[in-house]
Amino acid sequence: MKLIRREFLNKLGIGSLIALFAGQLYMWIRSLFPNVSYGKLRRVKIGNPQDIPEGMTFRNDLKVYIFRERNTFHAISGVCTHLGCTVNHVNLSRPKTVRIGDRDIEVRSEFHCPCHGSKFYGEGTNYTGPAPRPLDWIELEIAPEDGKLVVDLDRKTTKNFKLTV
Ligand code: FES
To answer: What separation in Å is there between the alpha carbon of 117 and the centre of ligand 1?
Structure first.
């Protein structure tokens, strides 16, 4: 009887060690794969162009700012080019003229990053803080099948791309 009990306790101990080791191994392997999806970003229909409000609309699900001026649209990514925080759109109390490249441009709004203080002019150019480059402009198109406005986050475009419908 004593022998059976000892044998049982030995097997229980070994089983526990194996279970502990397997658990640790699983946790270690799991830590190699972060809980972030790096899959292909989506191409999203955001609605009929005439239903998009005039001015600025932020799509939090896409982290994209959509701008409408009558029949003309453009989109700027809300993802900070430093470490990816979402930038806030800030209307300036009065317009200011800034030199961007070799041109003087009047800006009425900016983007401010709440994480490390980067700031971007309203057309996306970074001018202070650690962000290494401007915000991305996202290409817009009209879906041929139903006329809806489409944002494709995989398609960055040149600054000042505008879609007129
Ligand atoms: S993530 Fe925007 S400044 Fe760092």
So the answer is: 6
Probe residue for ligand 1, chosen from 82, 86, 119, 126 as the CB with the greatest number of ligand atoms within 8 Å: 82
**Res 29 pLDDT > 70:** no
CA distances from 100 to 77, 85, 103, 121, 159 (A): 19, 24, 5, 9, 12
Question: What is the model's pTM?
Answer: 0.74
Tell me the mean pLDDT in the region 82-107. Answer: 94
- What is the rounded average pLDDT for all residues in the chain? 86
Greater model confidence, 9 or 136: 136
* Cα(133) to centroid(ligand 1), Å: 11
**Superfamily of 43-164 according to CATH:** Rieske [2Fe-2S] iron-sulphur domain (2.102.10.10)
Say how far apart CA 98 and CA 34 lie, in whole Å: 41
Which residues have CB under 6 Å of ligand 1?
A: 80, 82-85, 113, 115-118, 129-131
